[in-house]
Amino acid sequence: MSDKTVPTKIYLTENEIPRQWYNVRAAMKEKHDPFLNPATLKPCTADDLRGVFCDELIEQELNQTDEYIDIPEGIVEFYKMFRPSPMVRAYWLEKLLDTPAHIYYKFEGNNTSGSHKLNSAVAQVYYAKQQGLTHLTTETGAGQWGTALSMACAFYGLDLTVYMVKVSSEQKPHRKEVMRTYGANVVASPSDTTEVGRKILAEFPTTGGSLGCAISEAIEKAVKTENCKYVLGSVLDHVVLHQSIIGLESKAALEKYGVTPDIIIGCAGGGSNLGGLISPFMGDKLKGKNDIRFIAVEPASCPSMTRGKYVYDFGDTGKTTPLMRMYTLGCGFMPSANHAGGLRYHGMSPIVSKLYHDGYMEAVSVEQTKVFEAAEKFARCEGILPAPESAHAISVAIDEALKCKERNEKKTILFGLTGTGYFDMTAYKAYNDGTMTDYIPTDEDLQRGFASILDIPQNK
Ligand SMILES: *Cc1c(COP(=O)(O)O)cnc(C)c1O
C-alpha cells in the first residue's frame, strides 16, 4: 500500500459502528484466575457481586465463553453521538521523526469527557436504568471517568455521587464544575461522608487520596443507599469488554486500507483502554493469525506491571472488593502526589495481567518528564493537545518509531490516543515552568505497598 492511498483520517460511517463487543476471554485458552470472595476465599458467584454491581454487568463480568456480545440498540444510539472515533495517520509525526515507520493513532478524545471512558459509562448507566436503579456512585481520579458517567447519568436520568481523588479535585477544579453541570454530586476523597473515608483520614491526615480510597468510599455509599449500585470505570472485565469498541473500530478502519499493525501500544492505568484496543487483535494473535507486539505503558511512579507482584489483591484501599489476581503494588500503595493525574491505580485489569503474565504482551514504564516531552512534540506537530495518560503511549510510539529509523525497518505502529489534556494545565504548567520532577519509588517504598497484600495460601 503506498502512503498516498491512506488518508490522514480514516472515518467509519455511523452504520459501521460495531453492533457487538469483542470478549477476548473467549479466545484465551487459559482464563485469568477467578475472583475470590475475601471472606471464604472461594470463587465469587454472581450473588457475591449483587450487593455492589448491576445484574447485567455481573453477567458480562462472569462471561468467559461468548466471543461476541450484542450491544443493545439503545447504547448504539448513544454511541452515534460521539462515535465512530477517527483513526489518524500521524504523517506529521512520522515526518518530524524522519522514520520509515507508519504511525497511526485511534483518537478517543472527541467528547466532553475528553476520553474513552464514555464508551463504558453509557453501557453501565443504560443497564442500571434497565434494572430500575435510581442512583449510582463511583470514584474518579483525573476526572474523565466521573465526567463520562455524569454525562451518561444526565442522559438516562439517574442520580450520581462521584468521589474524586482529593489531589485531582485540587489540581482540576474545573473538572468538578463540568460534572456538576451534568448534575453529579462531587465529593473530594478521602471525605468525612463515609466510615472508610474517616478511617483513612485518621490514619493519613494529609493524604491527597488515591483511587483505592475513593473506590472504598463509593462502594460504602452504594451499599448504604437505597436503589443504588456502584460502577467502576476500569479494571473489571466488563469494562474491557465495552472498550473493545476501540479495537473493533480500529481493525475495521485499518482493514479498509489493507493495513495490519506490527506493534500496538496503549497506556495502562487500570488497563481498560489498552485491553479494549488490543482485544480483537489479541484474539487473532491467540488463534495464530498474527504476530503483533503489544506494549503496555505505565508511569514509572506507579509501576504495577513492571515492578508489581502477580497475586490476589483487593481492588480498593478499604479492602472491600472481591480479590482479583492481578499485577499489583498492593492495595495499600499510596502513589506520589507529585505524579500528574491519571494512571495512579495500584492494580491492573486481570485480563491484561494474565496476558502479560503468559507472555502475550510487554510492559514498559516511562518517567513523567519524558512523557511530557512526547506530549509537547506531538501537540506541536499533530495539533492535538494530548492527555498526560495518552502521552505515555505517544512516548513509547516515538521510541519504537526511532528504533525503526535506526534499523531502517518499515513497521506499522498503532497507538491509543485516549484523550485530550485540556484539564491538565497544572501539569503542563509544571512542565513548561521546568518544575516538574520525576518520582520513582524505591524498593523500600514499594515494600510498604506489598506489605498490604494478603498472606493467603493462593499468594504463596
Ligand atoms: C482513565 C484514562 C486512562 C487510563 O485508564 P485505563 O483504564 O487504563 O484505560 C488513560 N487515558 C485517559 C485519557 C483516561 O481518561
Description:
The protein is an alpha/beta fold. The chain folds into two domains: 9-17 and 83-114 and 240-450, 3-Layer(aba) Sandwich (Rossmann fold), CATH 3.40.50; 30-68 and 116-230, 3-Layer(aba) Sandwich (Rossmann fold), CATH 3.40.50.1100. It contains 18 helices and 15 strands. It has helices at 46-50, 55-62, 73-79, 91-97, 118-130, 144-156, 166-171, 173-181, 195-203, 211-224, 237-256, 272-286, 304-307, 350-357, 368-382, 388-407, 425-433, 443-450, and strands spanning 9-10, 20-22, 68-70, 87-89, 102-107, 135-140, 159-165, 185-189, 228-230, 263-267, 293-299, 309-314, 323-328, 362-366, 412-417. A seven-stranded mixed beta sheet has the order 1-4-5-15-10-11-14, sandwiched between helices. Strand 12 (309-314) and strand 13 form a beta hairpin. The longest helix is centred in the middle third of the chain and has 20 residues, at 237-256. It is globular, with a radius of gyration of 20 Å. Bound molecules: pyridoxal-5'-phosphate. Pyridoxal-5'-phosphate binds next to helix 6, helix 12 and helix 16.
